[in-house]
Specification:
By secondary structure, the chain is mainly β. The longest helix has 34 residues, at 2-35.
Amino acid sequence: MLKRIFLFLIYCSAFSAAPVVLAQVAARSSANIASGGTVPQEGESYTVVVSDSILNVPIQLALVALRRDGTIIQEKVTSQSGVAVFVDIDDGTYNLSVHSVGYNDVSKSVVIDKNHLVDSVALTTLTFNEQVVVGQHITPVTTFGLTTGNQVFESETYHAPPTAHMTELIQENLMGVARAPTGEVHIRGMHGEFTYYIDGIPVPLGVFGGLNDVVDPKVIDRATFIDGGWTAEYGGQTAAIIDLQNRVPPGGFHLDASTYAGSYFAPNSNDTLGKKVGSFKALSSNGQNLSLSDHIGNLGLFLSGTRQESDRRIDPPVADIFHDHGFDYFLYGKLDYALSDVDYLTSNLNYSNTYTQVPYDSVEGIMNDLQNTSNGFQTLSYYHVISSETDRESNLFVGGYAREGGLSYTPGPGDPATFQFAGDTTNNYILAEDRSFTTVGTRVKFDSRLSHHFMYAIGLNFSATHGKEDFTSKDSAGHVGPAVMTNFNGSDFGIFAESEIHPLEWTRIELGVRYDQHIAPDAPLQNQVSPRIKWNILFDESNTAYLYYGRLFIPTNVEGLRTIASNVINTGQPTLPERDDFYEVGYIHDFGFGLRSKLDGFYKYSTPGIDDETVGSSAIKTPVNIAVTHTPGIELGFSYNDPSTPFSGYINTSIIHAYGSGAVTGGFLPISDDGTATDLDHDQRLSVVASINYQPINWYVNLTGIYGSGLTNGNPNGIEYKTGLFDFNPATHTAPSWIFDVSGGYTLSLGDGSTLVPSLYITNILDHIHLIKGAYFSAASYEEPRNIVFKIAYHL
């Protein structure tokens, strides 16, 4: 409780101080404008071209920074053509540093003036890959873009256990994210409505339950999290945009092979592990990975395969867990090809399959439910540089993708009937599901800068989905119950236009509008025009603020389970897209000694809102509408990294209240009512993640702490909800919790460019077992016990 009060005070003081800080900095900036002081002035446009010294091909995703007196003035990431452009750079002497994973860093002094506006940098590969040397990394695991406010994730100092899912990477590195049962995440008070972008292609979420939703975390070079301030080009499911940039390792042939084994450690045998033998529970927890990469001329290739097995997949709140074994298989490939200096192709291939036993409580009888989920996608992206002339740049992007998924849920032949549909209190049913879908889509974007002060972009996206669904039920006597057995089709279409106006060097305005259209089974055509505006105030090189308003249109996935409520009673309604008014204000500050911070506040008003209803602990779920939802929030984050030391770290904190009112419709449900206010299924008020990493030349130690004030417990006592941001409603939420994870590893050089890396991961060090969430819209779930995992990896 004292910790919570202390955090409240931090938030209150920080947020109440924000307007004062903005006012003071604005006043100071206005005075500087009047006196010709230190506010940003229009300067030079300076270009850096980065290439591989051996292959002589451009290096994309290299991090390029300009420093003056030890302070970062600007930092950029190279494009597919290996180019980073810095704008508004004053004439003078700077330190230019270039960093890319697998290459030796370059750091040199440059003089920028009208006679020296272009530099070329050729990087040489490291002696052996994945060696991180003090001073070679420019950013910590996660930091904030000084001019955008977006959080940026760097994989180089990220040490997740080999059992980690992609959603865990998101939860640990993005502010405003709450952990959810069975590996999901709730972003800024929304259930899980976010979209991955893979090399510029929007890849919608597939069937939940796979090893990793889209890509294996270890192949990600960089990820940009956009959870507010969206430009008009971003549509679809925008709780957040997860912009992933994957890489083919540099240099020639590389081979990486690893294996791990883990075990849950508990102090006695009468715990929630199904009464396994001994205090050290030698459960089946193991996995293997093999990846290969190479460059053949201008072609880069990467292929990775992973297998995982575990005897603990889902954690229902029962005394003993039975029937909880599972397997995961994951395959990922990437191809890069430089057609020319101005043309670039990249492709991603992904497939995953998960086999899961669904656990049961033996009190209700023996059940042999089996679940199999599959996900896959293929992308092809083409980038063309039309013009690289300074302040006349223009580019074309064309991409296409396919997305496949399937879910098979098979009950055991002797299962008892335990499921009840809402509106039917008489009959119990056994459920079965067989669903598959394919989505094909395209995205096109053209951008052009007409002058230093104005650029614009236009584009479109389109996707079409088709599939089949056999959702069936039967009662204990074998009689057929409610069912959906159908083929379905639907589509999503969006078109946008946006501009960036830079009238003065201390301000930038982003204006845009998009039109979206959503066609789904059992629902009339849905569409919306969405204006968006963001005003950026660039006070100086260390202080940026922004104000934002956006109208959002968030459709549900076409392949989501369709309404079956009409088969139970006659009031079933389809689930419609969420429609939002979103407001945000943010302030980013660079302290100048490796510490950077962001403070923001936001408010979202949704009519209707969206939540998900799930059948027990299965992957059978369907979106539902809530008539009105409100989501206010405050976030405060810090990131630290000083290249002269091996320390880096960050703290992400947020306080968010998601509550709804009015009718609940769609999915399995007949029309019901949330009353005047109900905390949503995904409402967790206070969330904190703190991480510190110590990584000298050949070893590392990492400690991460995760705090949550508790998700809903289902409110079994019918307590009245309060709606204030600081009204925690503790009687309607699970107990707060701290979870600590620690990891460490050492890199041994074997000679000839090969290394051996043993590492140890301990999750939930304190073995704090608690209820993550009660039964409400889905089954209740417990925290995973302490898990000790040993991994050994070989790199060639």
